[in-house]
Design goal:
two-stranded antiparallel ribbon, elongated
């Protein structure tokens, strides 16, 4: 957690959010399959979506791997998960094809969530 303070020396609140999320996720009872932005916001007990977004990007980065970003598309009674590489292509195009029908869809139909990253998964395997 000292790394958070060092990396975010210019924004102590982002460092604090990272620390709070790390402490929250360190408890195995809090490790769900997926976390929404708002679930993680509630875990920090702070109200700063902009800085929370920065912290989540950082914690999902290859530098930390505390979290991993996941992308979903929900349709009536089906859902699909997209890989990060798919999302890069989608962002370049500005749209994506519906996984079943092929219809052109807007990117705002995709939901972002988070899952436990390599950092905690590797720690779990060592137990």
């Amino acid at each position: 957690m000292e790394q958070f303070k060092k990396d975010w020396a210019n924004d102590e609140l982002v460092a604090e959010i990272c620390t709070r999320l790390y402490n929250y996720l360190e408890d195995p009872a809090n490790r769900l399959d997926h976390f929404s932005f708002y679930h993680l916001a509630n875990a920090t007990r702070l109200n700063d979506d902009k800085r929370l977004s920065k912290a989540l990007q950082y914690l999902s980065s290859p530098r930390c791997e505390v979290l991993t970003q996941i992308f979903f598309y929900f349709d009536i009674d089906e859902s699909w998960e997209f890989e990060s590489a798919d999302m890069i292509d989608f962002f370049k195009e500005g749209r994506f094809a519906h996984p079943r029908t092929g219809a052109v869809m807007n990117l705002d139909a995709i939901s972002v969530a988070f899952a436990i990253g390599k950092h905690f998964l590797e720690a779990r395997q060592k137990l």
